[in-house]
Amino acid sequence: MHAATMLAALALEGVLGWPDAVHRRIGHPVSWLGAFVDRLDATLNRPGFGPAVRYLLGIVATIAVVTVAVGTALAVAAVPGPIGIGLEIAAAATLVAARGLYVHVDAVRRAIEHDGIAAGRTAVARIVGRDVTLLDEAGVACAAIESLAENLSDGVVAPLFWGAVAGLPGIAAYKAINTLDSMIGHRTARHEAFGGFAARLDDLANLIPARLTAGLIAAAAWSWAAARIAWRDARRHRSPNAGWPEAAMAGALGIRLSGPRRYGDRMADEPWLNPAGTDPDAAAIGRALSVAVRAVLLAAGLLAAATFA
């Protein structure tokens, strides 16, 4: 039953997404969670507290956000009959981002091809946190493809996985954890202690989905090299999970990803994934999107198989 709900949610999100007009009017469930995280961060994460106290308060904040998300999901799932099923599918669809991910990454490809590198930098700046001002076409394409691969896991496969395991409460819990990590799970002076628990919880929540995503990418590209390079290079990534889909995508396309990049005034000397690969370009973004679409279709096939097993 959970797999069927996630399959229907994926289909609904693929057709409708989250319309811009709706987002402008009421925001999005993830932005609502984000506002709650912001409030807790401002209230509990005070510089006057020591690291141990801030870590414990970070646990309290994490539990509070996940509890609100799961409690809301349980209330929706408790609605009986066809109306309840429809509400559950609609709610789950808002927590999957396949269509939105495709649209935002394809916008980078189209910007480069039609309007040049400056437009490509503007487009990619909407989906990555690094400094894009000095990126050439290879740098912009690299950033876009990395974002696509990582968010294919975080925004599509992982929510569907936890939704198939535990229904709407499972997908809601995952999105709450992932939102916490994206907002407070950074190794900065402000958030290293307060967000430490959320970051480790996110690592745990993505342990299986990230590796599943790498497998889906390799299968979608029909590429043994993708699987081999993911197995070899994923551990080079600073994240215990993001390296898996990124390395698999690098292997599938025969390109190199990651590598040194700038965040504001700080240079991050990241190692390359598939260092023997070529530098990506706008055409490589298009090929990556094709692989990602096929990977999502394979995920849908797995959900269908689980539904009718």
The level of helicity is over 70%
Described by the principal axes of the CA atoms, the overall outline is: globular
Secondary structure tally: strands = 4
- Proportion of residues in β-strands: under 5%
Query: For the report, how would you describe the main beta sheet?
Result: 2 strands, antiparallel
Instruction: Return the structural class.
Output: mainly alpha
Count of discrete structural domains: 1
The ordered H/E elements are: HHHHHHHHHHHHEEEEH
State the end-to-end CA separation.
Answer: 11 Å
- Strand order, sheet with most strands: 1-4
Average per-residue pLDDT, rounded, comes to 94
**Rg, alpha carbons:** 19 Å
Question: Unreliable runs, pLDDT <50, ≥5 residues?
Answer: none
How many alpha or pi helices?
13
